[in-house]
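Appendix B, record 7
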Amino acid sequence: MMNYKKYAPYPLVALADRSWPDKTITKAPIWSSVDLRDGNQALPVPMSVDEKVAMFQLLVSIGFKEIEVGFPSASATEYAFARRLIDGNLIPDDVTIQVLTQAREHLIRKTFDAISGARHAIVHLYNSTSTLQRDVVFRKNREEIKAIAIEGTALVRLLKDESGNAGIRLEYSPESFTGTELDYALDVCHAVMDTWCASADDKIILNLPSTVEMSQPNIYADRIEWFCRNIKVRDAVLISVHAHNDRGTAVATAELAVLAGADRVEGALFGNGERCGNMDIVTMALNLFTQGVDPELDFSDLPRIRDVYRRCTRMDIHARQPYSGDLVYTAFSGSHQDAISKGMKAQPSSPGGLWAVPYLPIDPQDVGCTYEAIVRINSQSGKGGVAYVLEKDYGIQIPKWMQPDFAEAVQGVADTTGAELTPDQIHELFHAEYVKLREPVTLKKCHITWDDEEPRRQDEEDTTISCVVQTKEREFTFEAQGNGPLDAFVKGFIRESGLDFSVDEYAEHAIGRSAGALAVAYIKIVCADGRLSYGAGIDSNISLASIKATVSALNRLP
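Structure tokens (predicted):
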């Protein structure tokens, strides 16, 4: 047994009348990307200045208006990047850069040097307030830790005033908020607000991070609602959250925090960040999108975003990552494939209709993905998926009564190889299984003539067919009449060969819409002794296609 008794449950919040469970997110929060700071510091190989510029430009193109660009007092690269953005005039007028600093004097002063000349900047000040860090790391009491926050805030205020730059704002984080007593976190934040002289006209950002995710998302939401209720001047602050993914619920944590009153959300593309990562902004934004809420970020070209992200960070994206993974719009399961295929056909073609396709909560085209990989075939796939691939890629519409027969052939190959089958392989298998069969029956010659006299009765045998057929035993010639080429061929073949069978199912269609389009016919025959078989034929002449389909079925008789 694992020693679970070494861990204690996270304390609940006394909030009997919590309101967040009854709310719905109807507007996107203020988004702040931390890819260039929190995400960058978590990379095995941090980004170069050029890579950070490329990532910054990507974030701007997506629509981020607040971007944390680094910790400029921590390294020469971080400092050089901030200066590159400012001196190179790379920051759009409507974008605010954000820089992180510990509440230490020399680091704060270096940070102000780094942002000198920036039109809009957020100085993100932090110091750890958690019980554990107070006792173990800093060995300071509550008042001593609070004094660090006050002194740091006072210096930021002084340096802002000295700079004369009204575009500088303050963000304060009681770091390790999830490990800090609520009353103490509130006390420290009130002291910071007072020191800054926060007001409705000069708001302060109070960032309450889930620095380490330590509880269920609902408990974090309770903490945020409690904090929003008890902050002394609510309209003087923007409540921000910064969720980490240690318990795998960072997106849920951030969403519930917004319900609980948070105004702003920090996160990273695809959840990159320390340990298990930051909150995935792509996921949360597209969660809003699928609920009919404008995320105010543009993820309509996810492939491009993924490419730039991979190139700059050298990180990969899990194949099952929500919305952005390579396999999230792919179905291997037979029942899923069948439902998706039917849902796609039922989807209204006119714009303005609501999206409603089983197993696909979002239209892949809305994020720049295509339908090419929605259905992929392996040993778990079913008849609907196989039929979907052939119809979508090659225009071959296998009728429902024949789909199980071909699916069985596909399954046999998939089971044997243990591998996924590509659309080309499935198409080739269809031809090999039906169209290219030449034994034991070969149609060597076929000539069709019609009686053009009118009026024609439905049962009138006005079609004559002359055929030369080769079997293993012999070659024979026959001429027969019927109410159509297929009827005539069946009657003549039965008479000459002695094999008694009937046509049980038949379907046909054109492949494509041009004048020179090929025709494909599908057939099911049943013999007098109970044997049945399926066949398919392709020809520029639909009559010949139907006869070839019959020969195909004869060649596949068990």
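Remarks on this record: The chain has three domains: 8-313, 334-430, 442-555. The first helix runs from residue 35 to 41.
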